[in-house]
Design goal:
Elements: E1 8-15, H1 20-34, E2 37-44, E3 50-56, H2 60-71, E4 76-84, H3 97-100, E5 110-111
Parallel strand pairs: 4-5
Antiparallel strand pairs: 1-3, 1-4, 2-3
Helix pairs in contact: 1-2
């Protein structure tokens, strides 16, 4: 029997530099409350506090809900988000406002079909 492939969210977040652990705790607690499971986590504090995460869920809607919750959060800047839903050929919903808050012209949200 083939292994199930769940919808996946890959993202990078710039965290508050005065309390990166508190901010990371807030992000991970929201992921847990939303029903997401961590597949991979890494933290890069060399130049700035950046959390890289790959999260999965049984339903892609939970991934989008989590992104919207990040928008209501504090001291988190969404640098990159990629939602991959293997069961959907539909065009993805518009990015939450957090994905649009950028100071440069680079795209903040990448979607894959």
């Amino acid at each position: 029997m083939p292994a199930a492939t769940f919808p996946t969210l890959r993202l990078s977040l710039r965290l508050e530099t005065t309390d990166p652990f508190g901010t990371m705790e807030w992000v991970l607690a929201n992921a847990r409350r939303t029903g997401l499971a961590p597949a991979q986590l890494s933290f890069d504090a060399a130049r700035q506090a950046v959390l890289h995460a790959t999260l999965t869920a049984e339903d892609a809607g939970l991934l989008w809900l989590f992104l919207r919750r990040l928008d209501n959060g504090f001291d988190v800047e969404l640098l990159f988000a990629d939602v991959d839903d293997p069961d959907s050929d539909a065009v993805a919903d518009p990015a939450p406002r957090a994905a649009m808050r950028r100071t440069d012209s680079e795209p903040a949200l990448a979607l894959s079909a």
